[in-house]
Each structure stands twice: as C-alpha cells, then as structure tokens.
TrEMBL record:
The keyword Hydrolase applies. Keywords: Carbohydrate metabolism, Cellulose degradation, Glycosidase, Hydrolase, Polysaccharide degradation. It is an enzyme of class 3 (hydrolase). Its EC number is 3.2.1.21. The lineage of its organism: Bacteria, Bacillati, Actinomycetota, Actinomycetes, Kitasatosporales. Belongs to the glycosyl hydrolase 1 family. The active site is at E376 (nucleophile). The keyword Hydrolase applies. It catalyses: Hydrolysis of terminal, non-reducing beta-D-glucosyl residues with release of beta-D-glucose. InterPro entries: GH, GH_1_N_CS, Glyco_hydro_1, Glyco_hydro_1_AS, Glyco_hydro_1_beta-glucosidase. This is Beta-glucosidase. One of its GO terms (molecular function) is beta-glucosidase activity. SUPFAM superfamilies: (Trans)glycosidases (SSF51445).
Amino acid sequence: MPEPETPVTFPPAFLWGAATSAYQIEGAVREDGRTPSIWDTFSHTPGKTAGGENGDIANDHYHRYRDDVAMMADLGLTAYRFSVSWSRVQPTGRGPAVQRGLDFYRRLVDELLSHGIKPAVTLYHWDLPQELEDAGGWPERDTALRFAEYAQIVGEALGDRVEQWITLNEPWCSAFLGYASGVHAPGRTDPEASLRAAHHLNLAHGLGTKALRTAMPARNTIAVSLNSSVVRPLTQDPADLAAVQRIDDLANGIFHGPMLHGAYPQTLLAATASVTDWSYVRDGDLALIRQPLDALGLNYYTPTLVSAAPADAAGPRSDGHGASEFSPWPGADDVAFHQTPGERTEMGWTIDPSGLQDLIMRYTREVPGLPLYITENGAAYDDKPDPDGRVHDPERIAYLHGHLRAVRRAIAEGADVRGYYLWSLMDNFEWAYGYGKRFGAVYVDYATQARTPKSSALWYREAARSGELPPVSPVE
C-alpha cells in the first residue's frame, strides 16, 4: 500500500480568503450617483467584449451583499478582498465624495466584520471614471493626483474599520492591456501612452499610499497587488536569455523597480528608448513612488515562456492576454511567446504551481522581511450543474491543492506568506471574455442570480476551517 500523504498544514494566523472586484460583481451601475467608468464605456462598445456582454447587472452584489457575506461565512472565509468603484464614490473622478456610494462600502464592511471576516480593500481594480479618461486617462499625470484625493476619501471613510489596504490591482494590465494592445478598457493602442500610463500608475501608488497614511490609523497595512510574471527561457541560448530580460523588465521591473527600489531598470529604459524618452519622469517622482509598504500582494496564474523571435516574426501575439493586432509589450517585437507544456485551464493557461513557488521565493529574496499575500490565484473551467443542481469541479480542486502546496513549500523555505485569496469567490463578468469564463468557487446562474457553492468551495471551506489541505477529491 502507498504511504499516506503527509498532512499539509498552514500557520494558525494564515488568512483564507477570496477575492472579487467591483465592476465584475456589483451591477447597479446607475444607482446612487454612480457614473460610467471606462469599463462601462468599453463593454457597451460593439465588438469589445464577448457577445457584447457588460457589467450592468453582473452578480447584482450591490443588492445581494448581505446574502453573499453570509455565504462567505458559511464557506469558512476569514478574509475577503474586494475593490471600491471609484465612479461610485467620486463620480467625476474629482471633487467631494457621494456619501450614498461610500455608504454601500460602509455597510459591506460592517457586514463582513459582523461575521468575523477581515475586509481587504483594493482602491483601484481597473475601473477609471470615464471623465478622467476623457481628460487623458492614465497617460496624464493629473490622473495620479486625482487618485491620491480618492484614496484620501476612502481611507477616511473606512480606515477605522478596515486594516488591510491595497492601492492598485495589476497595474500592468491597466497600462499595457488598456493602452497598448487595447484588449482592455479604454481600448487604446499607443505604445508610448502605455509606458506613460505605467509611470503614472506607479506615481498614483506612491501618492495614494501617502494619502492613506495621513487618513488612517497607523495600525493599518498598505500593499499593492502585482501580477508579476514568472518569465522562463525557451532555451539557454543567450538570445533567449536576453528575451527573458526584456519581458521581465516590462512585466515586473517597470513596477517593482520604482515601488520597491526607487528606480526603473536601466535595461528597461534602454530597450524602450525607441518608444519613449521617459521625459515625463520628473525629479522626485521615484522617491514619491517608493513609499514604505507593509506587505506585497502577488497574483499568479501561469508562467511565461519566451525566446528570441525569428527575423521574419510579426511580433509577440500568443502571450495569453487576448487577441489583438497590437502588442502589449512595447519595444519587445523581437521576443516570441510560447505555450508552456502541460494541462491547461479554460483560459488556455498552463497549470504550473512551481511558478507560484518561484514567484514567492523571488520576492522573499528581493525584499526580505516584507510580508507577502497571494492576492489572486485560481482557474477558469467550463462548470455546469448536474441534474441534481450540484456543480462538481474536481479540476479546480486539483488546481487549488497544487498551488496551496506550493505556497506551503515556500513558507517552509522561509517565505513570510500571510494569506491566500482565491480568485474568485464566485463566477462573474470576466472582462472582455464576458460571462463565458467561470473562475468562481461559487456557481452563479446569471438568469436567476442563484448562487451554488461548487465542490471546490466545499473543499476550500474544509481547508480554511482546519488549516490543513484536504485530499484532492470532491467534498460533499
């Protein structure tokens, strides 16, 4: 008989969370003073999202949040990461707050706390107020200044009850999918503008962090969530290793360089010199961006495999970030992307938990002493209810088991990982993919808004309650 598997246990204070974002679940896009964000505009533009779908109703969480929080408690969650809709709080992106909008988040936070669930607030998850985009959006410096004002407003409103704060979610997507490849809102395809946007997102993080510090009790913690890529070479050929450097700079160094070390990588500046002169980086900006952080959030789904491109290549296309004639990698047309071998999720992303462990250990070495949280990790599958209405998703259970084991291995190697936020709590509007990709641990029937915990949610509940990973089998 095979030896029984050694139990995989986590530290007692480890947070077992799930994550969502405002535009993906809230709905109620025209209620209580909310005005359009760039995602409202983008999703209502023909041809931009699958089936022309949008977040007008989404999961109707704005009206169903109490039931949703009760469901979170039933699933054993000890933490919940959600984002605030900037357009709901500050409809034009400037000026005084709309209290009705803030009141929704006050009620949500109070409901979470009453169920013993720690709220973690993300200030920006891609939904820029449309009026700020009309004024130039993230390529304009003023947007970073407006973000600081918004951060101050939300910090003052919720800082007495929310201890965990995240400034930005995946600024790489905001900058490069939004302004370079155009597959995300606002759908622009200007490589130079995407690099300007990246700098001003960095600046917004720094200014927003400073604003939160003045608005909240000192006990509160501030982090940023980066979708840092684990970039691997196709071969050990020097040209492929140079391709790794190019993409690592654009995926990772462009954000963690200034945020954590106060400088952009010189290799990044050289590689993008043909695209931009970086003259928008002003004296003092890098010091403003490099604010002391209390933690770092890491989002991980799949590794990236690259090589030098053949001389006749048309540029990177198969990078897993949506189809576009325009590249999200400015200055890197000489890099080719490859599908890594192995099983894939419904997104076409290869399942490789070793990448998560590698990512954790990289930042453990790079910023020793800085606590880490896995702020997103999960998988999309083609989930469907069975005749009895139950939703079995053994693939997702195996995915979560493998990646949580990788987190535990990293902890054993000395990484200070404090918690894990499953993406996502429930099926939702998956951006340009519409409602066709289901990442949730909870199944949502969009016609009725009925929520049904999948097998993975019950498996995760057992892990959260025991602090130990159950076997890889459905939990009834």
